[in-house]
Write a structure and sequence with these properties.
Strand content: 15-25%
Radius of gyration: 24 Å
CATH architecture of the largest domain: 3-Layer(aba) Sandwich
Number of helices: 16
Length: 459
């Protein structure tokens, strides 16, 4: 992580006001959360809609912060601690990250997409780690705050940084791309996530394509080649950088020649090698994410043999196709981090492909941030679920009531209470069954999973 003297920090952020007696003090790491300060951290107070981080400077120093930034228009800057005055603390955080990145020799990969960006990040980082010193976005620190913090966490010997880039509106990914200046940009897919903010899938594709803003002419763009909206963006932009499409169709550079599933993950092949790849994560959509990762890895000359090793050892972020077991032995596929129509269909399709179970159970909660067509999307999911493949459908939340109302699954039941849902799941299932649990982050369906595990202790 960043380790600089306060004098150097002041120069990097175009700050002023640091007293000479503090110039040689070293800071190690950066935090914007005064409660999470580690000894020697630089505390950067952010002014939010409801909270002004400057109010917590004393608390940060009490936890042994090495110094603080202070926004010039905030009165009463302290004089007894190491303080650097800047015009805007948010912009100073971003400027510091840019300056630190420029000190390092690492390559940068930027990843975005309506679905799959975190999974692709985890898969790609695992592959690249077989050959390089890799730093990746922890969790989903992918915002205008999270991404600069991720850059500032990078060890000085990092060779490749794999950065996730998220957004809620137009212009946000452009900001991140211009900041990181990626050597490789990746778009996993265009779905419905954030359609409430952007209004249409076309606008979502425009926002996602912004990841190419900071890409140099000799950079690489890896994209889902089965998405017509991305083809339109490319045709409009006429970019000079190299492009590699991936997807299900054979017109892509990377596509699967075979896919199968077992209890531990996915097995697939591609035209470029005779090797058979074993991905330790379930879902055809994760095979698609892996194709994007393979395209990037080959760009960095990672051998197919090392790719195979990396895929076998992927550690996915929590609540993304995570397998565990309830107290009665029921196999749970936990995909509760987020939800959209595209991702629900993909995970339900996965459940269709699994064999050897007496019952297949689906639990769905509300899909949020879908805009004016929210009810229609929930109704379509109810119609989509094949009653010949799924034995039980449980739903939770007011929007998912529309999913239940349009379901043809023989055993369909809607719940307004998580505890009642968890109890019914345990009562209706056994160790011979499998259950997919999925919903938007705000629905917190992990409460159901924890309740199902709770009375048994360890899963």
């Amino acid at each position: 992580m960043i380790r600089q003297s306060l004098k150097e920090i002041q120069q990097m952020v175009d700050g002023s006001g640091l007293e000479s007696r503090f110039e040689d003090l070293m800071i190690c790491g950066v935090s914007i959360d005064s409660r999470a300060i580690q000894s020697g951290n630089l505390y950067i107070p952010i002014i939010g809609e409801r909270v002004n981080g400057h109010s917590f400077v004393a608390g940060a120093m009490a936890l042994d912060a090495g110094g603080v930034l202070w926004q010039a228009d905030v009165p009463n800057a302290p004089t007894d601690i190491p303080v650097i005055v800047v015009k805007d603390t948010k912009k100073a955080l971003q400027q510091l990250a840019i300056a630190y990145k420029e000190q390092l020799s690492m390559k940068v990969i930027g990843i975005t997409g309506s679905n799959g960006k975190t999974s692709t990040k985890d898969i790609l980082a695992s592959i690249l780690a077989t050959t390089y010193k890799v730093h990746k976005t922890p969790g989903n620190l992918n915002s205008e705050f999270g991404m600069p913090l991720t850059l500032l966490m990078a060890p000085a010997d990092t060779q490749i940084a794999v950065l996730e880039m998220g957004m809620r509106g137009l212009g946000q990914i452009k900001l991140l791309s211009d900041m990181a200046k990626p050597d490789v940009s990746v778009i996993t897919c265009i779905g419905e996530a954030h359609i409430e903010d952007l209004g249409s899938r076309e606008n979502i594709s425009i926002a996602k394509f912004e990841i190419t803003s900071g890409l140099s002419e000799d950079g690489l763009f890896v994209y889902h080649g089965d998405e017509p909206l991305l083809a339109e963006r490319i045709a409009e932009a006429k970019p000079a950088f190299k492009m590699i499409p991936f997807g299900d169709a054979t017109h892509n550079d990377y596509y699967p020649t075979s896919i199968s599933v077992d209890g531990n993950g996915m097995i697939f092949t591609i035209p470029q090698t005779d090797l058979v790849f074993n991905l330790s994560v379930l879902g055809k959509h994760n095979v698609m994410n892996t194709l994007a990762a393979i395209a990037v890895a080959r760009h960095f000359d990672v051998t197919f043999e090392h790719i195979k090793v990396g895929l076998a050892n992927v550690e996915m972020s929590k609540m993304r196709m995570e397998i565990s077991h309830a107290e009665n032995g029921l196999m749970i596929i936990d995909d509760t981090y987020n939800s959209s129509p595209t991702s629900v269909r993909a995970t339900v399709d996965l459940l269709y492909s699994l064999t050897g179970f007496e019952q297949k159970i689906v639990v769905l909660a509300d899909m949020l941030e879908l805009g004016e067509h929210t009810i229609r999307y929930h109704e379509e999911i109810g119609t989509y679920i094949d009653p010949n493949e799924i034995d039980v459908l449980f739903t939770y939340g007011p929007l998912s009531k529309h999913t239940a109302d349009h379901s043809k699954v023989k055993v369909t039941q809607h719940f307004d209470d998580k505890l009642a849902l968890a109890k019914e799941l345990v009562a209706r299932s056994s160790n011979k069954d499998v259950c997919l649990i999925k919903g938007s982050r705000g629905m917190m369906l992990e409460d159901v999973i924890n309740e199902m595990k709770g009375s048994a202790g360890e899963s």
